[in-house]
């Protein structure tokens, strides 16, 4: 598979993605736990079918010490016993925030309240921004058919 667009060779993409990558780096430094960030990024990418982001976030999480069991179970987190209540709340918010077109009311008050029980305002802000950021990144990669499999942990750091 060959990508439809080469973002690294495009002047306009270079200018725009410089800011996008800067925002992504800022989110990595947020008070939201790193493991939660990677789990959420992975789940959003699974929902959106973004192979390159699934590849990236699986490898980044594994390099940071995440277990293969937890990574394999992200897609079925509701039935898995390996996630904390806080992680489960974040994954549920990520799903509803990603599927806004499918869920007539967007993110439900119940899902929001559950996330707010586990995260303070700064962490919630980072969580919402991470979900939104991943949805944007997924769409860039899916539309342009970026190929997956060659990512190496730390490649963009």
Automatic annotation (TrEMBL):
SUPFAM superfamilies cross-referenced by the UniProt entry: AhpD-like
Signal peptide: none
Any single Pfam family the record assigns to this protein: CMD
InterPro entries: AhpD-like, AhpD_core, CMD-like
Top-level taxon in the UniProt lineage: Bacteria
Domain spans labelled Carboxymuconolactone decarboxylase-like: 25-96
Name of this chain's protein: Carboxymuconolactone decarboxylase family protein
Phylogenetic lineage: Bacteria, Bacillati, Actinomycetota, Actinomycetes, Kitasatosporales
């Amino acid at each position: 598979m060959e990508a439809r667009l080469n973002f690294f060779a495009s002047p306009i993409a270079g200018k725009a993605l410089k800011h996008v990558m800067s925002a992504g780096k800022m989110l990595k430094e947020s008070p939201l736990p790193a493991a939660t960030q990677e789990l959420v990024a992975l789940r959003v990418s699974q929902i959106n079918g973004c192979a390159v982001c699934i590849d990236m976030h699986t490898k980044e999480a594994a390099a940071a010490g995440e277990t293969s069991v937890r990574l394999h179970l992200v897609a079925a987190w509701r039935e898995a016993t390996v996630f904390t209540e806080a992680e489960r709340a974040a994954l549920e918010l990520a799903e509803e925030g990603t599927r806004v077109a499918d869920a007539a009311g967007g993110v439900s008050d119940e899902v929001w309240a559950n996330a707010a029980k586990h995260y303070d305002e700064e962490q919630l802000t980072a969580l919402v921004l991470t979900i939104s950021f991943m949805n944007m990144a997924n769409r860039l990669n899916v539309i342009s058919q970026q190929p997956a499999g060659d990512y190496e942990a730390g490649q963009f750091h």
